[in-house]
From TrEMBL:
SUPFAM superfamilies hit by this protein: Bet v1-like (SSF55961)
Signal peptide residues on this chain, from the entry's feature table: none
Sections of the chain in a coiled coil: none
Highest taxon listed in the record's lineage: Bacteria
Annotated Pfam families: Polyketide_cyc2
Protein name: Polyketide cyclase
High-level lineage: Bacteria, Bacillati, Actinomycetota, Actinomycetes, Pseudonocardiales
Length: 151
């Protein structure tokens, strides 16, 4: 299921995944695992050993277009919620946020909500790509995440 807010700057997709929340969260909170299920085909690789454990942490990711992104974790609840603000190394985040929320529905079933929020985006160069990040694109990440978590 996908939703877009009225102003289209908060894009949301939901999916139930037949796996425990802790297994799914481990795939999201470990940046080295993210390229396995990234539906935007934007993430190339991340150094191992960056498993996120709390808000305030920063993890790095090499992107497919070249370059590196620093991701500042701004929301964190183990097994339930994680959100980060990406930026170029050493720069302030331009104002877009990626969030994952997990709601256990049973021991082996989890509702996963993926949100892209660009209400605070100030970098004009990024607006075209932000507008192109649709709920359908978020759903591709959810589908790929499900395939990995359910295997």
């Amino acid at each position: 299921m996908t939703d877009n807010t009225e102003n289209e700057k908060v894009v949301v997709a939901h999916r139930e995944i037949a796996a425990p929340a802790d297994r799914i969260f481990a795939l999201i909170a470990d940046p080295a695992q993210q390229p396995r299920w990234d539906g935007n085909d934007n993430l190339a690789e991340a150094p191992a050993g960056q498993r996120v454990r709390g808000a305030g942490e920063v993890f790095t990711m090499r992107i497919t277009q070249g370059g590196t992104r620093e991701n500042r974790v701004v929301e964190f609840e183990e097994g339930r919620r994680i959100a980060w603000l990406p930026s170029e190394p050493g720069q302030q985040p331009p104002g877009h946020l990626w969030r994952w929320e997990l709601e256990p529905l049973g021991e082996a079933l989890t509702r996963v909500t993926h949100t892209y929020d660009w209400t605070g985006l100030t970098d004009e160069k990024r607006l075209v790509r932000a507008r192109g990040t649709t709920a359908e694109k978020l759903m591709v990440s959810l589908e790929r995440l499900a395939a990995v978590a359910e295997s």
